[in-house]
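DM between two lab members

TW: hey, do you still have the Carboxymethylenebutenolidase homolog entry open?
JB: yeah, one sec
JB: this one, 245 aa:
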Amino acid sequence: MANESRPCPCDIGDRFDYGGRGQEVQVGHIKAYVCKPPASTDKAVIVIHDIFGWQLPNTRYIADMLTTNGYIAICPDFFVGQEAWKPSNDWASFNDWLKTRDAGKTDKEVDVVLKYLKDQCGVKKIGVIGFCWGGAAVQHLMLKNPHLKTGVSLYGVISRFEDKHSLLHPTFFIFGEKDDIIPLEQVTLLEQKLKQNCKVDYEVKIYPGQTHGFVHRKREDINPQDKPYIEEGRKDMINWLNKYL
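TW: and the structure you got?
JB:
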């Protein structure tokens, strides 16, 4: 587990120098980043950010990647105007900060986004992906939201929902072997509980040598040894979405 002075479940990793191809829009009571493919489609993916918020270039990079694979991608501000975590913040205040940003209380925002996608974009099939804090939110949504078809949880903090495993929809779980905040024994236990309780398709995959945040926080051009696993994680994510959407 993380040490007490740095209780954050997200390594900072590399902040991409990336501007984004989409646009920011108002969706009900929240703002969102939306990117659409050139050809019309009735499929969309909701992207749930990590603790660094909806404007993080890394997350928009992944959203745009989904768009190049034929999906409408939308990354809403699930903190609803509250400040995202900053690397310069005092880690001692992290738990208090987190109390007002519960990954298990994203339903109101998701409902607004679903309505927007259906009414404004003509979408019929919707999946969800999320990173760390957002990965935990994905697990929450896969347990209860009937309107989503599938989900990909990338290094979602298992301890947030460790006693709930009756998923409604096919879910893919991505973890790094060397993740300091999500020990492998937690991942093993998750697999055991899913095997006992889950009646839909799921997969739990551990990527060798990878740390927390590797799919969206590591740049393959400056981490050559990680490049195959970064690319594999992204490809696996797309393949899972393609299979169920």
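TW: got it. The radius of gyration is 17 Å. The chain has one domain: 23-244.
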